């Protein structure tokens, strides 16, 4: 009996030959699997040539959604923003269709982001990142993509519902998430749309999705979660990731100050938007818990009750530090 396949890992050598043929890269270019996750990433490396090949998981993104992502990247690249952008093949096509065992999967070749992933960012790097983010937001204000729109309903309500498919509602942590998601939704509702103008957001800007050269140049990549939403979502999520990395909160405050100053050099962040920062950071945090539950077999093999405890404790620490209403609420043991 031949079993159907729900997910596969495509052979790197075969992908390397395909890229060599379709993109005119050297046939001696080596292709290696870099990362498996929600999508798979391969590195193509040859003489003077490097590129990253993303193979989207089956049914993860529609072709139209991928086209919208690539159109955004090409626009940002044309404007001079440092992003990893799609490369066209010899026939001018950006998207490849691959016949995988589970069905058709899409693949895109991206320019290589020079530099390294830097966990411990310098204040100067934070300024550069802030400027780059601000320029991205300023250049796409009011633009709507054929991508998800990150409303409180999607970020909070639907993400909590997704978490319920994996975790019991009776868990103290789930009760906390239920209550805090309602409070966060109320915070957004009370602020009104004027406090959170809609535009294009990356939604996953942190050190793991950027490369920094020794000269301090920053290149953003992995726009897989790009969509429509208030700019404060990107600002807050970067700050939240920085918050968890920097145990010395004086260092955290200094780096956030540099980041926000860099951002303000490209786009004004209103007082109303700044007031939403704690809630926005927590909302994106809950959203990614929902993603991990939906794609736990690819995005988080460690998903468990113990992981949930750790994840929720980080949300609590963030909200407590920023004195968000309800942030002092602790899960109650049952």
TrEMBL record:
GO terms for molecular function: homoserine kinase activity. GO terms for biological process: threonine biosynthetic process. Residues 38-267 form the Aminoglycoside phosphotransferase domain. Keywords: Kinase, Transferase. It comes from the Bacteria. It holds the Pfam family APH. SUPFAM superfamilies: Protein kinase-like (PK-like) (SSF56112). InterPro entries: Aminoglycoside_PTrfase, Kinase-like_dom_sf, Pseudomonas-type_ThrB. Belongs to the pseudomonas-type ThrB family. This is Ser/Thr protein kinase RdoA involved in Cpx stress response, MazF antagonist. It comes from Hymenobacter actinosclerus.
């Amino acid at each position: 009996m031949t079993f159907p396949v729900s997910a596969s890992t495509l052979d790197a050598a075969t992908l390397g030959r395909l890229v060599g043929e379709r993109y005119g890269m050297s046939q001696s270019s080596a292709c290696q699997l870099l990362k498996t996750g929600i999508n798979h990433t391969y590195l193509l490396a040859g003489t003077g040539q490097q590129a990253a090949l993303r193979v989207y998981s089956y049914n993860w993104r529609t072709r139209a959604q991928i086209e919208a992502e690539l159109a955004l990247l090409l626009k940002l690249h044309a404007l001079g923003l440092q992003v990893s952008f799609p490369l066209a093949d010899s026939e001018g096509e950006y998207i490849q269709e691959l016949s995988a065992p589970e069905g058709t999967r899409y693949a895109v070749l991206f320019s290589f982001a020079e530099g390294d992933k830097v966990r411990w960012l310098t204040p100067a790097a934070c300024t550069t990142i802030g400027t780059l983010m601000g320029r991205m937001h300023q250049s796409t204000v009011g633009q709507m993509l054929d991508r998800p729109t990150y409303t409180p309903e999607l970020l909070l309500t639907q993400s909590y519902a997704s978490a319920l498919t994996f975790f019991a509602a009776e868990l103290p942590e789930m009760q906390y998430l239920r209550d805090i998601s309602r409070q966060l939704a109320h915070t957004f509702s009370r602020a009104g749309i004027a406090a959170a103008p809609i535009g294009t957001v990356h939604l996953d800007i942190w050190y793991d999705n950027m490369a920094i050269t020794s000269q301090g140049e920053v290149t953003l990549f992995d726009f897989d979660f790009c969509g429509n939403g208030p700019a404060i979502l990107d600002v807050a999520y970067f700050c939240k990731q920085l918050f968890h990395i920097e145990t010395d909160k004086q260092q955290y405050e200094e780096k956030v100050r540099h980041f926000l100053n860099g951002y303000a050099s490209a786009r004004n962040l209103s007082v109303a938007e700044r007031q939403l920062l704690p809630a926005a950071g927590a909302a994106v945090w809950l959203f990614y818990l929902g993603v991990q539950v939906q794609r736990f077999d690819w995005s988080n093999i460690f998903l468990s009750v113990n992981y949930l405890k750790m994840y929720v404790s980080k949300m609590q620490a963030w909200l407590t530090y920023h004195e968000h209403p309800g942030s002092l609420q602790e899960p109650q043991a049952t």
